[in-house]
Amino acid sequence: MTASDSLDLVAAAALFAATIGAWWLSGPLRIRERLYLRFAAVLFAAIAVSVPLGISDDVALFLLPLAAVSLMIAALARFAAPLPIFIATLALVASLAGGMSAMLWTIPVLALGPVILAGLAIVAAGLNGTAVMASLAGTALLGSGLALLEQGAGNGFLLLCAAALVGLAKPAARKSALAIQQ
Q1: What dihedral angle (degrees, nearest 10) is formed by the CA atoms of 132, 133, 134, 139?
Q2: Of 65, 102, 118, 159, which has the fewest beta carbons less than 10 angstroms from its beta carbon?
């Protein structure tokens, strides 16, 4: 086992811990936000579990687009207008097709399209809802897609995925009593 392998295991453990934390943090959210956020958490947990098995590159190519679009649907429902069910279903099916095509044909760029679209939509929704953390989470999601393209499912990719997930699961800051009075 090399130092790189042990760093990947630590990053995978951090991603797995982030999925547990995101599941717990999403409890107070509305059902439409919570459902898609928890679905993305399960997909990221599957990526984290695949690291010790040595199949994380293929699993990440397959699951990252689906997780990214799930995060996008949750972010739009939370900070902007929720997507209609039909549009959300089409987006999930298109991301699944992109991920499956990327994995089967080993063309990682096919998985990057849905991730870029989802990341940009999350940044826009976060800016719309004045949620800086959500905008940063969208940026981390964009970074995770680029890291997957460049280095595979290494420690940078895993940590950026954890940051994106926790950034969107974090509850919105409450306004102070002073801000409400003004």
Answers
A1: 90
A2: 159
